[in-house]
Write a structure and sequence with these properties.
By secondary structure, this protein is mostly helical. It is built from six helices and two strands. A hairpin with a 7-residue loop joins β1 and β2. α2 crosses α4.
Length: about 150
């Protein structure tokens, strides 16, 4: 006879399910922009809003993407007028990725959408519970970070 009580998901599985749910909701809300972009574009624009100007390699490192994925991301953002590539001032072999005014404006719209998704995800948590969740996840992250 099997126990009818379901086992709780493992910690890793639970984290993955939360991440997947956030990505799914963000993709749905970003689709409303009608630009054919998704979560990777969101992460790319977020990183560029903080790091630009930067090289494609620096962006790839920041968002943990392989060079071919970064190239596709940058090609799409360039098509949308969000970035421009220009020669690097110190390294003539490299290009710097610059965020355009259109890119900054799109990032602000997408950031607002991301904030709405986070609010949706945590709407059942009291402010103290949200603070506790952030504190606990920060401690877990820090425990797994290299020394």
């Amino acid at each position: 006879m099997t126990d009818p009580t379901p086992m709780p998901p493992s910690f890793g599985l639970l984290l993955r399910q939360v991440r997947d749910g956030l990505v799914r909701q963000l993709d749905l809300t970003m689709a409303e922009e009608g630009l054919g972009i998704g979560f990777t574009h969101y992460i790319g624009l977020k990183a560029l809003a903080c790091k630009a100007p930067c090289t494609a390699a620096e962006l790839g490192h920041a968002i943990d993407q392989v060079p071919s994925a970064v190239t596709r991301l940058l090609d799409r953002l360039e098509e949308l007028g969000c970035i421009r590539r220009q020669p690097h001032e110190q390294d003539r072999r490299a290009l710097q990725i610059m965020l355009t005014d259109e890119g900054r404006a799109l990032w602000l719209r997408l950031k607002a959408r991301g904030d709405q998704v986070i609010d949706l995800a945590m709407h059942d948590l009291a402010p103290a519970e949200r603070d506790q969740l952030f504190s606990l996840l920060t401690r877990v992250r820090d425990a797994l970070s290299p020394p």
